[in-house]
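Predict structure. Chain length: 202.
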Amino acid sequence: MPRVSPDYEQTQKKRIIEGSAKVFAEYGYRQTTMDQICQALKISKGAVYIYFKNKEELFTSTMDYIFHKRYELLSGAFEETDPLKVKFEKMLNCLGNLVSRDNKYAYTRLSVEGFIESDRIPGLESIKADSYNRFYKLLHDLITQGQAVEQINPKPDISSMIVVIMATMDGLMMHSLVQGRELDPERIQKVVIEMFSHKLNF
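Prediction complete.
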């Protein structure tokens, strides 16, 4: 078998994961078969098994990729020099784009699948916890930085507020899965800003 470069291997793994994400999102983890994934990617099972030993490992890698991708998009949505309110607005706009009609199955529904299967598949729980902790830290840093430069109210209980913000965002993402109840990015931004503006002193 000819040797391939590490870059080629990474490209192939990414292609398989991104293609699998769409299939897992459409059919759900339990109903998805490796045949469906291979058919969608137009590759053989052998080509998939070079990188992933089974469907469970592929799903775990896919969830890890999705959560990292979501964090990268949210944390990179704003400039460090932006005022705190602008940072939140840009991050919420990015979140809204993630749950738009074109992207919602690749992110929202797959995230739901990850939560459902996390009790059964080893490794998913730690991936989910890592995603939660990174997003929590992102929000915590934004709020404490805003307090330090007096851009927001210094009094709120930061930990409780962050938990509520995260729960609200998760709820809006779930809501976007209901047919006919999709939320556009501007609406998501408006809902969250209105809910927390008095606490953040925007």
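Summary: The domain at 55-200 is CATH 1.10.357.10 (Tetracycline Repressor; domain 2).
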